[in-house]
Design brief:
This is Type IV pilus assembly protein PilM. This protein is α/β, with parallel strands linked by helices and 305 residues long. It has eight helices and 13 strands. Helix content is 29%, strand content 29%. The two termini are 18 Å apart.
Length: 305
């Protein structure tokens, strides 16, 4: 699936997305960069103190922006990022993502965005007129348009952009983690995916460039309740898959800290085969990555030059 919600003119400047990306997580900053054309990415990770980044939409996410900027600068220096522009992957819980159906949508963004804002007014718990918003048309015909929309409070977007600029870089695109991971998928067949973070799970169903389901659920801190919510979320997504595709899913594409086999062991018995959505890199690691997932960075660099 090729979907990224561009933020600035960087994509046009490069003819694609920037050749460097970062992902901001509660655990720390992941960075990746392409050393040159047709070369494999180089990865680095710089940890953050617990509590420095707590993602959400109701309050500012960072208790120490300076610490986040320093981690970004250190991680990107470790991968020798080319240029000032980077793709910025942010936590799913800091963004709201919707797939909306319209009879039609204006072709010009200047006319389409007010229509989207009007539709979203009663769908999000924050002011939409000045919120950060980007969209992508998934499918369109003479009688229907399916549109992927990402929206987040303006102060939250500004917060993430400010720490990037504080590190000496410019955000070329801003995107939620789960959407970034889905950019690694190229199959035209329906695929069920689960993207798990420390604080949330996002389940999705893709079919080519279409998105049949995208659902983010905050997770409780209690380990047993967390497991139950993850199992329930996957079961709901699998049932939705069966309803939409008319067959039961056989595989679940997993992205998150750790491997698919580790997730499968924790998740428990299932008829689904758990598959890594983006395998962990075996080379190009400039720092200790612990068990951090690089799936979001792999998607953020898909189409980069």
């Amino acid at each position: 699936m090729s979907s990224i919600l561009s933020r600035s003119s960087a994509a046009a400047q490069y003819g694609g997305r920037p050749p460097a990306a970062i992902e901001l997580t509660p655990e720390g900053v992941l960075a990746a960069a392409l050393p040159g054309k047709n070369e494999q990415p180089v990865y680095a990770f710089e940890p953050l103190r617990p509590g420095v980044l707590v993602p959400g939409i109701s309050e500012l996410n960072m208790s120490s922006p300076e610490a986040v900027s320093l981690a970004i600068r250190t991680a990107l220096a470790s991968v020798s990022a080319r240029g000032r522009f980077v793709t910025v992957v942010i936590p799913d819980t800091a963004v709201r993502v919707f797939v909306l159906d319209f009879d039609s949508l204006p072709a010009r963004a200047s006319e389409a965005i007010p229509v989207l804002r009007f539709r979203l007014r009663k769908m999000v718990p924050f002011e939409v007129e000045h919120a950060g918003l980007s969209y992508q048309i998934l499918t369109q015909s003479k009688t229907e348009a399916r549109v992927l929309v990402a929206i987040l409070p303006s102060n939250i977007l500004e917060e993430y952009e400010t720490v990037v600029r504080g590190a000496g870089y410019e955000p070329g695109a801003v995107m939620p983690s789960a959407l970034a991971t889905l950019a690694t998928l190229e199959s035209s067949e329906p695929l069920l995916a689960a993207c798990l973070s420390k604080v949330a799970i996002t389940t999705s169903i893709t079919r080519g460039d279409d998105l049949l389901l995208y659902r983010t659920l905050d997770l409780p801190d209690d380990p047993q309740q967390r497991l139950l919510e993850v199992q329930r979320s996957v079961a709901v997504a699998a049932a939705y898959y069966e309803d939409k595709v008319s067959v039961l899913p056989k595989e679940l594409y997993f992205a998150g800290n750790g491997t698919a086999s580790e997730f499968e062991h924790w998740f428990g018995p299932s008829e689904l085969k758990i598959v890594d959505l983006a395998p962990r890199p075996s080379s190009g690691l400039t720092t200790n990555m612990s068990n951090m997932s690089t799936a979001g960075l792999a998607g953020a660099l898909a189409g980069a030059v």
